[in-house]
């Protein structure tokens, strides 16, 4: 059996097993607002939800119609999902006759130019967010920005770091030690992310109109639906959110410094096609700059190192100054069978999987290993349930089923340790559920979705709308208690007041504000970056 060793210190951790109770995780869920007939809502962000610019938990992503829920980072995944449940129930109290879309791939969309870009008011900060999204529309199209997913944010407990340093502890500051471990987690995640796509991919089909006439290799399931019979996640395939400009960007995951340098270079390097567009049409801003990336948030990745930034601080500045605080997993589809798009079993497995990635030895990515990981992910996204599917592991070809079972066996000790720390057997049960999917692909969400559509004789859009209605009923039958509803109303009121304050107190014009935003990279860039 192929198996790499765990980092030195796992035996030490067994003597401090209580520390596993202090891992934190938060969830960000994106979802479209839709009308009762399964079309994109064109109405503004509901006023009762507060100001999208300043609300800490309910905002918008690309579109005015694309909600994003953000839970706090909590030590108990059950409480994290309870928080996400509260956000859904609060939203439905303000949604009128609209629904939250149950799938990652979009509903029936209007013409490209009619998809509304998110608005954030007249403050410089709000205008910056809006212009950034206008740039995304020019670069990738509005339709692509309507794809939704779930982000899983995970951090190790503070008390674990002295135990993970091993023999290298004296050579690293606390900041460097944390970043070293988290970057190792990220390298291993790139090696094994394909497993998550197989287990949790839930986008094997799309509305035919989604492709807008683009060439594709999908098959027709019915008059309204395109699919691939063995696909797990078309969202994570080459049909999803991809960037030709970013294909030239090769972030270095060997170190945090290398990663930051790659992002800063991309944010300072002009891209000819974007240069032809320019930043203005007349007096109107249409994108923040003409570089490969307008900002660090534009970088598309399955996982990111993250640090909560202070007010006025850019994410890349926060990483440079204070190091990695947590990782953001971005490759998870919304499960249309689950009201929240994710459940406790998936969260328990993700915790064990991410601990495994953090604690397993993680050599630097060499000899095309990163490209191989990307290729394996694309293969699984498009045909992960194909019988006898083979992936590449270095120079070796290996069956997906065999490699999956090897990885699950290696993750098992982490699931056991988590159960010992928390009591019960929820992590081992979650692991067993994933093992069953490996041995029986019909249990995967992607397979269940296609089977349900076939049994009901419905299109993708009809299936997802039916699920949206079921989930809406479950939330509306459980309205929030009065005190919780009042707390959300207070958050909404405070967010509106804060947006009004920003709009009233801004000290400079927008052009100067964008110039300062661009200039903030000067302290990070080196001679290699060209900034506008």
UniProtKB/TrEMBL annotation:
Record keyword GTP-binding present: no
EC number(s) reported in the record: 6.3.2.2
Glutamate--cysteine ligase domain residues: 16-376
Pfam families, sorted: Glu_cys_ligase
GO molecular function: ATP binding; glutamate-cysteine ligase activity; metal ion binding
Single GO cellular component term: cytosol
Pathway participation: Sulfur metabolism; glutathione biosynthesis; glutathione from L-cysteine and L-glutamate: step 1/2
InterPro entries in the cross-refs: Gln_synth/guanido_kin_cat_dom, Glu_cys_ligase, Glut_cys_ligase
Catalytic activity: L-cysteine + L-glutamate + ATP = gamma-L-glutamyl-L-cysteine + ADP + phosphate + H(+)
Keywords, in A-Z order: ATP-binding, Glutathione biosynthesis, Ligase, Nucleotide-binding
Any GO BP annotation: glutathione biosynthetic process
Family: Belongs to the glutamate--cysteine ligase type 1 family. Type 1 subfamily.
The name this protein goes by in its record: Glutamate--cysteine ligase
